[in-house]
User: Fold this.
Amino acid sequence: MSRFDPWKDPLGVIDAYRRVKKRFPEIQLALVGSMAHDDPEGWDFYNQTVAYADGDPDVYILSNLNNIGGVEVNAFQVHSNAVIQKSIREGFGLTVTEGLWKTRPMVAGRVGGIVRQIQDGETGWLVDSAEDCAEACIEILRDPAEARLRALKGKEFVRRNFLMPRLLRDWMVLFNTLLGNDTAGAELAVAGASRG
Assistant:
C-alpha cells in the first residue's frame, strides 16, 4: 500500500492499464493507497487520480478510508497477476519487497532503492515509462509460467538480502572483524552486488 502521491505515479499506472486493456480486455486495476487525515495534498492527488480514472468500472481506487488494511492489501498482492510500484521517486520501497516476498511478478520504476531490490529481467521488471510498464504487464499476462519463475527468483533474492537472518549474519561478521577474528567465508551480503 502506497500513499496517493505524484511520486508513486498512479496516473502513469492508469495509462499503462489502458494500454494493457486493449490486449487483455478482462483485466482490472486496483490502486490501493493510504490516506492521512492531515495531508491536504494527498487528498488533492487522490481526487485527481479518481478523476483521471474517468469512471472506468474496472479501476478500483481503494484506501484505508474504505476499510482497506493489511489483510486486504495482502489479499490484493497475493491474488494479483502482477504488483506494480511505478514510482518516479522512491526510497527503499517496501511495497516492492512485499510483492517479491509473496512471489508476485513485480513491475516497478527504475528509481531509488527499487533498483537494489529488482534485477531487471531476472527477478522482476524495471520500467521507465507507462509504455514500458504496459509492455511488462503484457509480457506477464502472455507468459504466466515465465513470470512465475521470475517471481520465485525475486522471493529468493529477498530471502537472501533483506530478512533478519542476513542482517544478523552481517552484524556477526562485523563484530568478529572488529575483534580481529577470522571471518573467511562469511562475507557481508550486498544487495545488487555482482555474483561470481
Remarks:
- DSSP finds eight helices and six strands in the chain.
